[in-house]
Amino acid sequence: MDPIRNPYAPGAGQRPPELAGRDREVEAFEVVLERIARGRPERSLVLTGLRGVGKTVLLNSLRSQAIGRLWGTGKIEARPDTSLRRPVSAALHMAVRELAGRHRAPDRIDDFLGVLKAFALRSNDDGAKLRERWQPGIDVPATRGRADSGDIEIDLVELFTDAAAIATDVGTGIAIFIDEMQDLGTPDVSALCAACHELSQLGGPLIVVGAGLPHLPTVLSAAKSYSERLFRYQRIDRLDRSAADRALNAPALRENVDYDQKALDLLYEKSGGYPYFVQAYGKATWDHAPRSPITAEDVRVAAPEAEAELAVGFFGSRFERATPAERDYMRAMAALSTSAADDDGLDGAVPTADVARSLGRRPASLSPARDALIKKGLIYSGERGTVAFTVPHFGRYLRTQPF
């Protein structure tokens, strides 16, 4: 098979050639956009799921839908220990510039940009020297007395309210897309919830679409109790069998290539239906297959290459980020997770008390390692007293490594 024609794309956030299994989410977002266009109230949206299920890909796809409706859009990736103020300023600046290019309301937009600049400049430390002060690149004077109090919750509510008013004036909407949303700091999460709450009460045409790990709803709820009713939550899971087959078949057929049924059976068994793994195994199988149709034997020959690539780029890179104490914690989790596996052999959540017992330590003494792993996005706590891996098959990977 010609590797140049290989259609599969196992990249972080890279759109696959066939966005299979996400029709429900795409259609639901189309309803949200249409309802807002008609002045109907709608909630902001939160996508949650393990790593490798395609949250970022779906987030980008939803953004494309909004752009297709001539909305203003901006996207940011949250990072630990980084304030929301600068990235949200850049995202809103981009969204408003999109609106300015499509709609004629220069005075209103300039007024808003003055507020946005004031909001952005509050990210600078008061004692910072002039050459060290960050400039947001907005060519209008900063407006005083609006979104510049220094309290992120007050300021974000005022900023989003003013941005929604601009969208109303030009007859469209604004959507801010936030990836890795669980990494926002507590004050920023609280401010974001408060701003979305205010918008929902006013019916303003501005929504936030966030994506994050499975414990993101818990993070939001801890910040504001009403967040459970504030967002529409959609859990993004692995693909079912028909969707996984479509993700492999559709791009192959466009290249006049077929799979036999046993090859698809084995590819689903190997990938578990996780979109990233589907692409990784599909790419390796294509490169090793001598001709069409692709057979189960081609899959078996190619599987070690796909697994080696996943071991380095998907699993190994994450394991390397952990300290020795954190690695011990994860290895203990991996050993215990086999007994908590589901019917498909996927690692389940394990009690933190059992992890401590297996390491011969008191649970409290392991709290720093556990909290650091959660902060690094390697594990999450879906329920009190339990932890699970954020990466599918990570436990299996750890159990097979000769550490």
Task: Describe what you observe in this structure.
It is globular, with a radius of gyration of 23 Å. The model has no long low-confidence stretch (mean pLDDT 90). It has 403 residues and is an alpha/beta fold. The chain has helices spanning 23-37, 55-68, 85-102, 106-121, 152-170, 186-202, 216-223, 227-230, 241-253, 261-271, 275-288, 296-320, 324-337, 352-359, 367-375, 394-399; strands at residues 44-48, 72-77, 174-179, 206-212, 231-235, 350-351, 379-380, 386-389. The protein is built from 16 helices and 8 strands. The chain folds into 3 domains: 23-235, 3-Layer(aba) Sandwich (Rossmann fold), CATH 3.40.50; 241-319, Helicase, Ruva Protein, domain 3 (Orthogonal Bundle), CATH 1.10.8; 322-399, Winged helix-like DNA-binding domain superfamily/Winged helix DNA-binding domain (Arc Repressor Mutant, subunit A). It has a 5-stranded parallel beta sheet, with helices on both faces. A 3-stranded antiparallel beta sheet has the order 6-8-7. Helix content is 52%, strand content 9%. The two termini are 37 Å apart.
Essential attributes:
alpha/beta, P-loop_NTPase, 3-stranded antiparallel β-sheet, Rossmann fold, Cyt_c-like_dom, Helicase, Ruva Protein, domain 3, Arc Repressor Mutant, subunit A, iron, 403 residues
Structural class: alpha/beta
- Look at the structure and give the mean pLDDT: 90
Instruction: Identify the strand order in the major beta sheet.
Output: 2-3-4-1-5
CATH architecture of the largest domain: 3-Layer(aba) Sandwich
Q: Which fold name is given in CATH as the topology of the largest domain?
A: Rossmann fold
Gross geometry: globular
Helix content: 40-55%
Tally of extended strands?
8
CATH class category name of the largest domain: Alpha Beta
Name the assembly state: single chain
Secondary structure tally, helices? 16
Low-confidence regions: none
**Span of the ends, CA to CA:** 37 Å
Rg calculated over all Cα atoms: 23 Å
Strand content range = 5-15%
Listing every helix as H and every strand as E from the N terminus to the C terminus, the arrangement reads: HEHEHHHEHEHHEHHHHHEHHEEH
